[in-house]
């Protein structure tokens, strides 16, 4: 048997050709005590013996989720990534996933991970509807920055309230028979983007600029998409527009 790196993970190739992924504890024991037991097989060779260029850290990485707010001025969406920090050194973990073992290889250095820390990061990712770190939808971004956890780091606090790029331009469904002016179409595009994220918002145009027609255009889209009924709370004076 021998220690190998398989799919970016420190593993053990057994005598029968199978590849086992030991736990961080087993790898630590093999390296620093000279033996461990894996699948009831005693292992007496150290990982660094089979892979001389490999450095084995005794100390685990502290894991955090780094949130990069949207960049409004250059139309970039929000993103998140997983950071490992050891002695103030930041190590970006590009291959983090909810199925990873409790240890990681970064370059030629192996680090153990604290299982509770890994589980907390996994729970935050899954709770926000993600399978792995990366580009965030608006809803995921807003949910993340509201999450109270010491495992979150926001890269740019001053940009935290930016909501990113302009929404995609969309065309109202055929149910809508009205006409939207350019500024109304901008509002409708935003309403559509917010609706697709399953979020709520306030359309704060001045009186008389056509908020009702923008809402009607959105409701036509909702109807076409087969969504449920919508409850409208409004002055009686605008009901005629909704019946038209």
User: Helical content, roughly?
Assistant: 25-40%
Cα end-to-end separation: 78 Å
| Morphology | elongated
Number of domains: 3
Major sheet characteristics = 5 strands, mixed
Question: Low-confidence stretches at least 5 residues in length (pLDDT < 50)?
Answer: none
The helix-and-strand class reads alpha+beta
Which percent range describes the beta-strand content? 15-25%
Strand-and-helix sequence, N→C?
Answer: EEEHEEHEEEEEEHEHEHHH
In total, the number of strands is 13
**If helices are DSSP runs of H or I spanning 4 or more residues, what is the number of helices?**
7
Mean pLDDT: 83
A few lines on this structure:
28% of the residues lie in helices and 22% in strands.
Kindly describe this structure.
The structure is a single chain. This protein folds into 3 domains: 2-56, no CATH class; 62-159, no CATH class; 182-236, no CATH class. The longest helix is centred in the last third of the chain and has 15 residues, at 182-196. With 244 residues, the protein is of the alpha+beta class. It has 7 helices and 13 strands. Strand 10 (103-106) and strand 11 form a beta hairpin. It starts with a strand and ends with a helix. The protein has helices at residues 24-32, 47-50, 115-127, 138-146, 182-196, 211-224, 239-243; strands spanning 2-6, 9-13, 19-20, 36-38, 41-43, 55-56, 62-68, 79-86, 89-93, 103-106, 109-112, 134-135, 152-154. The mean pLDDT is 83. Strands 7, 8, 9, 12 and 13 form a 5-stranded mixed sheet that branches.
């Amino acid at each position: 048997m021998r220690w190998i790196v398989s799919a970016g993970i420190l593993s053990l190739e057994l005598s029968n050709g199978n590849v086992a992924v030991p736990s961080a504890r087993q790898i630590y024991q093999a390296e620093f005590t000279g033996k461990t037991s894996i699948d009831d097989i005693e292992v007496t060779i150290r990982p660094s013996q089979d892979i001389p260029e490999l450095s084995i850290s005794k100390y685990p990485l502290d894991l955090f989720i780094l949130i990069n707010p949207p960049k409004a001025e250059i139309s970039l969406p929000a993103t998140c990534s997983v950071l490992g920090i050891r002695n103030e050194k930041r190590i970006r973990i590009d291959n983090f996933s909810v199925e990873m073992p409790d240890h990681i290889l970064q370059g030629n250095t192996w680090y153990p991970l604290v299982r509770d820390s890994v589980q907390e990061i996994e729970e935050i990712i899954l709770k926000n509807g993600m399978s792995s770190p990366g580009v965030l939808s608006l809803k995921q971004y807003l949910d993340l920055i509201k999450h109270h956890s010491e495992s979150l780091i926001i890269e740019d606090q001053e940009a935290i309230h930016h909501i990113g790029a302009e929404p995609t331009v969309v065309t109202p469904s055929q149910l809508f028979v009205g006409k939207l002016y350019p500024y109304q179409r901008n509002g409708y595009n935003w309403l559509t983007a917010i609706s697709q994220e399953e979020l709520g918002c306030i359309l704060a145009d001045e009186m008389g600029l056509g908020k009702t027609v923008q809402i009607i255009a959105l409701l036509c889209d909702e109807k076409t998409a087969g969504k449920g009924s919508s409850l409208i709370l409004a002055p009686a004076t605008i009901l005629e527009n909704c019946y038209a």
